[in-house]
Amino acid sequence: MSETVPQEAVPEARRRGQPQLGRASKTRAGMWFWEVDRVLLTLALMLIAIGLVAVAAASPATARRYSDASHIMPAMHYFWRQLVWVCVSVPVLITVSMLPVTLARRLALIGAGVFIVCLALVPILGHEVNGAKRWIGPEFAAFQPSEFLKPLFIVSTAWMLSFRAKDPQLPVLFITGGLTALVGVLLMLQPDFGQTIVFGSVWLILLMISGISPAAIAGLGGTAVAGVVAAYLFYGTARTRIDNFLFPTKDAALAERYQVEMAHDTLTSGGLLGRGPGNGIMKFKLPEGHTDYIFSVIGEEFGLIACAVIATLYFAIVIRVLMKLLDEDDAFRLLAAAGLAAQFGVQSLINMAVNTGIAPSKGMTLPFISYGGSSMIALAIGYGLLLAFTRRNPYLKRSPYTGRWSTKA
Fold it and tell me: What is the pLDDT of residues 286-340, one digit of tens each?
């Protein structure tokens, strides 16, 4: 928490204005260092570092795939570009994590409104890439509104649902449900079925955390099943993805199914320890090896053990956040942090499920590891918000008797 520190809790030297180091520092950076969850920050930086290594491994194959006679890309083209995005994203992550909770919430609400408008403009003004319109803006500064909207929409939804703690009769369930449905429709127009699943899944998780009744949960579960059936019957993209995954034909294997099969073959070709950095062979046949299927490239060059370590890091982040929230008594902080962790976990799970052949292809990046500017910066904003909402004042402790925060245990 970032409550005001009582005067009696501040060391004498600090009150006199003497220079301080560590916990006694009165600078914003010094207080941030002791308030922020350094385990969560370290886990994120580890994933970003792993991502740079993984993009370096995938870059030669991707550069060859997208080179032609008129333009031959350098082998490490995508690695150097990713390094630029990392240099932008890490300061963004740290800056956002320093924001006061109230300011972070207000900026998220404003940002969610702005990016919903941008998302609505994508079908009209967007650029088509690989058969889908997901990008907007001039070519040199194009971005994906859906990537930036995810964390901001989650925080906004958490804010609305937090009012249930004060008045359970407020119609926040219907309001947030309507907004989620609106975003889902806009995403399916692109089409982007994978992101629609992420938004819907996180909304359902937030509803369950906010304490809706079992009857409402059962009703929403039935609605979700009906929605999947309706998507299969009336939404061509969903029907094609599901059919190609469950009932592959020769034509499907030559098209979309080819990606899933190649991802699985690439992932397993390195065995437990991998072929070694730069020694991958199957990655040259794998489409989008630097983005959607980078997990498979990691498997080929660094082995299945490395993949298991990465999966463990994602799991550790989610568990760490949940542990931090066990004694959280602020409804907004609880919902916002849990929702952001859920988004991080769901997106990671979907990407790894696609790479292992458990789920159909969805065009979902692996957080902090896949190549991409929009994805990297948006994830930095989301993770920065997560760190902001899980900060705790080092001078305060919770009493085991009253449950209140004070300078004495």
Answer: 888 888 899 999 999 999 999 999 999 999 999 999 998 888 888 999 999 999 9
> At a CB cut-off of 8 Å and minimum separation 6, what does 9 contact?
395, 396, 407
34-to-38, 39, 88, 329 alpha-carbon distances in Å:
8, 12, 24, 21
How far is it, in rounded angstroms, from Cα 350 to Cα 363?
10
Q: Is the pLDDT confidence value at 213 over 90?
A: no
Q: How far apart are CA 258 and CA 262, in angstroms?
A: 6
Q: What is the pLDDT of residues 3-59, one digit of tens each?
A: 444 554 444 444 454 445 455 566 777 788 888 899 999 999 999 999 999 999 999
DSSP notation for 225-266:
HHHHHHHHHH-HHHHHHHHHHHS--HHHHHTHHHHHHHHHHH
**Residue 353 reports pLDDT greater than 70:** yes
Report the distance separating Cα 177 and Cα 243, nearest Å.
Answer: 28
Ordered alpha helix ranges (H), 23-144: 28-35, 38-66, 77-97, 101-125
Q: Quickly tell me which residue has 């916990």 as its tokens.
A: 23
DSSP character string of 163-186: GGGT-TTSTHHHHHHHHHHHHHHH
**CA–CA separation, 151 and 336 (whole Å):** 9
Looking at every residue in the chain, the average pLDDT score rounds to 83
Distance set, CA 110 to CA 39, 102, 103, 269, 332 (Å): 30, 13, 11, 47, 17
Contact 143, 136 (CB under 8 A): yes
DSSP percent split of the chain into helix, strand, coil, nearest 5? 70, 5, 30
